[in-house]
Amino acid sequence: MIALDGAVVCVTGGARGIGKATATALARRGARVWIGDIDIEEADRTADEIGARAHPLDVTDPASVAAFRDASSTDGPPDMVVNNAGIQIMGAFVDQKVELYHREVAINLLGVINGLHAFLPGMLDRDRGHIVNVASMAAKVTTPGMSVYCATKYAVAALSRAVRAEIASSAVTVSTVFPTAVHTELTAGVALDLLPTRQPEDIATAIVDSARHPRREITVPGWLSPMGVVEEVAPEPLLQRLKHLATLRRPPGHYDESVRRRYLDRIGQ
């Protein structure tokens, strides 16, 4: 259990979206927040808004993650880390450049591996700390049109479970958060008509609350938690039909490019 008032907390991908909402909520609880983001200008703006500190961070580069850890340590040993940075490539699997998928894997999965590998040893040495890995309901309910995204989030969930088993005898905790679709730039231009959605602040609340009440896996909203079991036991042809209906029979990964263009430019798609 981490008392946030005065705690040193690091948030990756903290300049926008869920990361920004989380950093804001942590700062309001009295935490000394460090925002790591590849877009340092936006990270600086966010940090100035909430009274945090920003540092350039490329989560795909272990040396960059280590530099972020070392910078935050000037305020004291990090008490909590939120591995949040991620991108989402959408569209039919065969229509996307493989280089984009490699980047998606590097950010969404290797970024979490790098974060764990940089921060966990010190926490274990101190026998104190809390790590939150942000996955997605896409880890539990596979979605046509975002195949590699689903794979990376599934892998984050599995990685978290394996690491939890390894450190079970310590006082260090690892929580995995599974948000539903969230109204951020990542979902810009995507039809969310038939999906349960939440605001970034809802996910931030779950992340921040996990510091005081650590749980292994946190689904937001909670009532979606059984969907992972449904995905495993229901006949796949039935699930395919239901998913087709849920997307209003649009092509896999369909989005409004005019609305999503800003996000696509930012992630290099």
What does this structure look like?
With 269 residues, the protein is α/β, with parallel strands linked by helices. It has one domain (8-267): NAD(P)-binding Rossmann-like Domain (Rossmann fold). The chain has 9 helices and 9 strands. The strands form 2 sheets. A 7-stranded parallel sheet has the order 3-2-1-4-5-6-9, sandwiched between helices. The protein has a two-stranded parallel sheet with strand order 7-8. Helix 4 (98-126) runs parallel beside helix 5. The protein is globular. It starts with 7 loop residues before the first strand and ends with a helix. The model has no long low-confidence stretch (mean pLDDT 94).
Q: What is the number of E strands? A: 9
Give the H and E element order. EHEHEHEHEHEEEHEHHH
Q: Report low-confidence residues grouped into runs of 5 or more.
A: none
Beta-strand proportion: 5-15%
Overall shape: it is: globular
Please tally the helical runs, counting DSSP H or I stretches of 4 or more residues: 9
The largest sheet, given as strand count, sense and whether it forms a barrel, is: 7 strands, parallel
Biggest sheet, strands in spatial order? 3-2-1-4-5-6-9
CATH architectural type: 3-Layer(aba) Sandwich
**How many domains is the backbone divided into?**
1
**What is the CA-atom radius of gyration, in angstroms?**
18 Å
Q: In CATH's first tier, which class applies?
A: Alpha Beta
**Name of the CATH superfamily:** NAD(P)-binding Rossmann-like Domain
Indicate the CATH topology: Rossmann fold
First and last CA, distance: 40 Å
